[in-house]
Structure formats: C-alpha cells, structure tokens
Specification:
The complex is a heterodimer of chains A (244) and B (166). Chain A has eleven helices and two strands. A two-stranded antiparallel ribbon of chain A has the order 1-2. In chain A, helix 4 packs across helix 5 and helix 7 packs across helix 8. Chain B is an all-alpha fold. Chain B folds into two domains: 77 residues, Rna Polymerase Sigma Factor, Chain: A (Orthogonal Bundle); 77 residues, Winged helix-like DNA-binding domain superfamily/Winged helix DNA-binding domain (Arc Repressor Mutant, subunit A, Orthogonal Bundle). Chain B has seven helices and no strands. In chain B, helix 5 crosses helix 7. Classes of the chains: A mainly alpha (244), B mainly alpha (166).
Chain lengths: 244, 166
C-alpha cells in the first residue's frame, strides 16, 4: 500500500495519507476509473480532483460517455453466405446430393458426354457399314473378322487412290510435253531445203504413221515409267491383284 | 464455426474499415484456424482468445502489406474507409446506433494501429485485460496504457467530429 501510494502520488500530510491527485494522474488512471479497478482511496482522490478541476471533469464525462456508447454498440452483421463460403473453402464444395435413381442423370446433359456418345455411335455405324457392304446379308461381329475386313478395305481404298494419282500423273506428263513440240503442217516451211545428210530440226515429220520416237516425242508408256517415283512404282507392284 | 464468424468479421471490419477486406480476412482466418487447429491446446487459454490471436496476427500482416502498398502508391496516404449503407429505413434508435457505429469507425481509422486494436479488443469485443495481454503478447501495463490512450484519443477525435457523448 505504501509503495502503491508512493507510485500514484500519495503524500503524507498532517499525519494521514492523502492523495495529491494531479491532472496528469487523472489522465493516466482514467480507464482504471471507468473500469472500476481503482482502489477506494484512489477512486475517492480521483473524484475529489475531478470535482475541483474543470478540464479533468470534462475529460471524465467526455471519455466515459463515449466509452459507454462504444461498448453498447451491437456487433455488425456479417454478410450473408460468409459462413457458408468459409465452410465451402475449408471443407471443399460439396455437390447437392440427388436422391434416387436419377442421381446420375445430370451427367448425361453435359456437352462432353453427348459428344462422346455421338462419336461412338458414328464409329459404330461406319464399322457396321463397312462390314455389311463386304459381306451382304450376314454380319460377322467377331473382333478378328472386323479387324481383317477393315484392314482389307483400307488397303483397297489406298491402292485405288494410288492408282488414280498415278494415272493423273501420266496424263499430266503427256499433256505437259505435247505443247512443247512444233505444230506440224499448219503453214508451209519458208526455209530453204537443207543439205542432204543433215537432219532438219524444223522439218515436219515424215509421216503420221511413223513411230512416235521418229516424230520427236517419246512413247507414253516409256515416259510414264521414267517419270514415276520409285515409291509409286513399288506401290503399284504391291497393289493387290483382286482389284475390282 | 458459425458462432465465431460474427466476432471475427467484426474484428476484421473494425480494424480495416472495409467490408470486402474483412470478408477475405475472415475467410483467411478460418482457413488458418482449420490448418493449425491441431496445434491448439486448451491449457494455453480459451479458444476465443486463441482465435482472436490468430485474427490479430493476420490483421497485422494485412496492415503491413497495405502500408507497403500505400507507400508505393503515394496518392492515398490514408486508407479509405467505406460507409456501410443501411438498406432499409430503420427506427430512430437503430438509425442512431448505425450512425454512431459509422462515426466510431471513422474515429478508429484515425487512431494508430496499436491504440486501435487495444480499443477494439477492449470496448468492441469485450475482452478482459488478461485476454488482451495474451492476444497482443505485451505486458498488462502496456495493455492498460494503450487502452487508456486509445480511449482518450478516440474521444478527442469524436468530439472534433461533432459527436456528443451519452
């Protein structure tokens, strides 16, 4: 008590303890006064000082009033769904449980699922059409026969394509060579006759019945063989004999 | 969890003055609580005190982050505190309480962070000195000093704002 009194400015006057309360001390112990944690004699000294000091009385009323108001303020309402959001974040989102046998139905309406179904159905129809067109009237659904039939049809289709492309190449090569030769017999040759024994490159062919090698361009068959790439020739050799 | 949501949200809102930030911080508080719950021991103190301590640590981190952002962005020297508009017409007493709450919020925004958190924990959250000491991890004398200075400063600010005491 003595130390406390010394600490808080208690001085001995005329044989008894008396609080020498100052304005600074009032400000320092204001919260203790408001929270009622002052000792009785300190509280009495505080009140006595505040009664005679206008500024300290104003401070006590002002701060005490505001503290009372602030303490009586209700808690603010949290935003709606905040608790649900926190639960969702801490526990993870849980999809609403659909009861009954329709629980799986929402998955059907997803776009990915529908596209997958369409793709599978289209594949099945293509394979079925290929099998049925090869052996009309009876289907062979064993995986081995389906594989062999599909493999055979793919190779046949590829061989047809290779043959068609090669034919086009032959025709193109022939057509590309033809315009490079001079047009025969469209107009009389004004040049004087050349000497005997020297071939005239501008002379018209001797006869249309002469072989093509004598007319200035090679045979089509030889040309085609010359211009074919090696892989095309090998593809032609590997082409199945039972092509339709 | 739902019992503590309002307390945590109020603490975050009173400290930051921003409802969106308070929501995010509240969510972050419970995520951290969810992760560190095994480390909580009841011998250390009440769960509410531990939860308040976690919240306060996150608020301090948030304050430091926002202060760093404010230093880099010198346009806004002080944080902007939003008003919470009342969606419906309120009775007079409730309207006065709402108005006073907004004024107190503006006054709290002008306090230093140390004084602000002490006043919030004591007067708005209703914690005892011992609990505040455990949350702030400072001696009880420091807690009392901060609360006292915060109250006086807040009263001075509110008086300057034209608010009359009860």
């Amino acid at each position: 008590m003595r130390e406390s009194s010394k600490k808080w400015g208690c001085v001995r006057r005329s044989g008894r303890n008396r609080m020498d309360w100052s304005c600074t001390l009032t400000e320092e112990r204001l919260s203790d006064m408001l929270d009622r944690t002052l000792m009785p004699e300190e509280s009495a000294a505080f009140s006595a000082h505040a009664a005679g000091c206008e500024s300290c009385a104003h401070l006590l009323v002002q701060v005490g009033g505001f503290v009372k108001q602030v303490q009586q303020l209700p808690l603010l309402e949290e935003p709606p769904f905040l608790a649900s959001r926190i639960i969702a974040v801490t526990r993870g989102d849980r999809a609403p449980a659909t009861k009954g046998w329709l629980a799986w139905s929402p998955a059907i309406w997803q776009t990915r699922f529908a596209m997958g179904i369409v793709t599978v159905a289209a594949t099945f129809l293509i394979v079925l059409h290929a099998v049925s067109s090869g052996t009309p009237g009876k289907f062979q659904f064993s995986p081995a026969s389906l594989y062999h039939d599909a493999n055979r049809r793919i190779h046949l289709t590829y061989a047809r394509g290779v043959r068609f492309v090669n034919d086009l190449r032959v025709v193109y090569e022939i057509q590309s060579r033809l315009p490079s030769q001079p047009e025969p017999a469209l107009e009389p040759n004004p040049t004087p006759p050349s000497k005997e024994g020297q071939p005239d490159s501008h002379a018209p062919p001797k006869s249309l019945n002469s072989p093509p090698s004598q007319r200035g361009f090679p045979e089509a068959g030889a040309l085609a063989v010359l211009t074919f790439p090696l892989e095309t020739q090998s593809a032609l050799e590997e082409m199945p004999r039972s092509l339709p | 969890m739902r019992r503590h949501t309002r307390r945590v949200y109020n603490l975050c809102y009173r400290f930051t003055g921003n409802s969106a930030a308070a929501e995010d911080l509240s969510q972050e508080v419970f995520i951290r609580v969810y992760r560190t719950l095994p480390t909580y021991e009841s011998a250390q103190g009440a769960f509410t005190t531990w939860l308040t301590s976690v919240t306060r640590n996150l608020l301090v981190d948030h304050y430091r982050r926002s202060r760093r952002d404010r230093l880099t962005d010198s346009i806004n020297a002080l944080p902007q505190f939003e008003e919470r508009p009342s969606p419906v017409r309120l009775p007079d007493s409730l309207a006065q309480a709402t108005e006073l709450s907004a004024q107190v919020q503006r006054g709290l925004a002008k306090l230093s962070p140390e004084l602000r958190e002490a006043v919030i924990l004591r007067d708005l959250q209703g914690l005892e000195y011992e609990e505040i000491r455990a949350v702030l991890k400072v001696p009880e004398g420091t807690v009392k000093s901060r609360i006292n200075r915060g109250r006086i400063e807040l009263a001075r600010i509110l008086e300057e704002m034209g608010v009359r005491p009860a």
